[in-house]
Amino acid sequence: MNKIGIFYGSSGGNTQNVAKTIAKKLNVSDNDVYNVAKAGANDLIPYEILLLGSSTWGYGDLQDDWESFIKIISSVDLTNKKIALFGCGDSSSYPDTFCSAMGIIYKTVSKKAEIIGLTGTDGYSFDDSEAIINGQFAGLAIDEDNESNLTEERINNWVEALKKAI
Ligand SMILES: Cc1cc2nc3c(=O)[nH]c(=O)nc-3n(C[C@H](O)[C@H](O)[C@H](O)COP(=O)(O)O)c2cc1C
């Protein structure tokens, strides 16, 4: 399998936990899992596949550490890399901006790399999201606040689909 790097931003630990679960299921070692608060441009270079995760904060905003990392990733040559996105949000309290951070990242990186791992919206309950791209989520949407019982299954389905795409 091509070399995978996982980069996440997480304020309360939910996206970090999702990142670690994904890493285990894809046999990605801890050394290839980065908190974006501590990552730099050079960390992105070795990987052919980047999995990028952010929770959504404010009202449809990136997680805080992603505010700087999005500038870093914009400056990196992503040609020939495949990118998949994941994120945590709260579809009940923020139904109009559910997991919107994934959409912000998508809009930045989709100009420069192939995006894989988009997912259907069946089984989710929300009104709007910047992460909706042609009727699909830009990546894996997780709601630990309201639907943590579905997290494992959602991650499993996504990881299986990713394995076929990489
Ligand atoms: C002040 C605040 C603002 C939030 N804004 C949004 C939002 O706009 N959209 C959304 O889907 N979730 C929103 N959330 C929910 C978080 O994204 C969610 O709790 C997530 O699991 C946090 O992940 P983390 O622990 O990795 O940071 C917000 C939560 C808080 C406390």
Order of helices and strands: EHEHEEEHEHEEEEH
Main beta-sheet annotation? 6 strands, parallel
Query: What separation lies between the terminal Cα atoms?
Result: 7 Å
Ligand catalogue: flavin mononucleotide
Given the helix and strand composition, which structural class is it? alpha/beta
User: What general outline do the C-alpha atoms trace?
Assistant: globular
- The whole-angstrom Rg is 14 Å
CATH homologous group name: Flavodoxin domain
Discrete helix count: 5
- Percent helix, as a range, is 25-40%
In round numbers, the mean pLDDT is: 97
Strand content: 15-25%
| Overall number of structural domains | 1
CATH architectural grouping:
3-Layer(aba) Sandwich
Quick structural gist:
The protein has a single domain (4-165), classed as 3-Layer(aba) Sandwich (Rossmann fold).
Features:
about 170 residues; alpha/beta; Rossmann fold; binds flavin mononucleotide
What does this structure look like?
The protein is an alpha/beta fold and 166 residues long. The protein has one domain (4-165): Rossmann fold, CATH 3.40.50. The chain is built from 5 helices and 10 strands, in the order βαβαβββαβαββββα. The chain has helices spanning 14-25, 41-44, 64-74, 100-109, 151-165; strands at residues 4-9, 33-35, 49-54, 56-57, 61-62, 82-88, 114-116, 132-133, 136-137, 139-142. Strands 1, 2, 3, 6, 7 and 10 form a 6-stranded parallel β-sheet that branches. A two-stranded antiparallel sheet has the order 4-5. Strands 8-9 form a two-stranded antiparallel sheet. Helix 1 links the parallel strand 1 and strand 2. Helix 1 (14-25) packs across helix 5 (151-165). The longest helix has 15 residues, at 151-165. The protein is globular and about 40 Å long. It binds flavin mononucleotide. Flavin mononucleotide is lined by residues 10-15, 55-60, 63, 88-90, 94, 97-100, 144-145.
